[in-house]
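SEQUENCE WITH STRUCTURE:
===
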Amino acid sequence: MPGAISPYADHDSVVQGMKVITNRDRSLSALMPEDANVGYNVTIEKGATIGEGFTIGNLSTIETGSQTDYGVTVGHRATIRHHAHIGESSKIGDDVTIEPHVRVGKNSIVDNDVTITAGTAIGENKHVTKTGVVDRMPTS
């Protein structure tokens, strides 16, 4: 898959202007923090900003201009479209689509199989379900 970043790669490959992150040398990519936990066939497009403590599941995509802050977790088969911003310590479920120009506040959770439409702003400490958005108690 073009643009894939895989922790299981056995050799250096160029990926949209950057190198594949390998278990042997995680410092090859300027895009990814050293402590990133990256699944297989993950696409991080050039121009995306990835915070420290980042985790992303298999077959997920982060598009150009998007930003994930410190401690963000993205599930499997998720798509973060261009110019979206995911706040600190937020959790994005499996099979989620975050459309362009969406803002998800820090310490929020997006359930599995949810699509957040373009231009939406979700506040801090929110829980996004298939039926709506509710407040959640922040963890200490």
The mean pLDDT is 79. The domain at 1-140 is CATH 2.160.10.10 (UDP N-Acetylglucosamine Acyltransferase; domain 1).
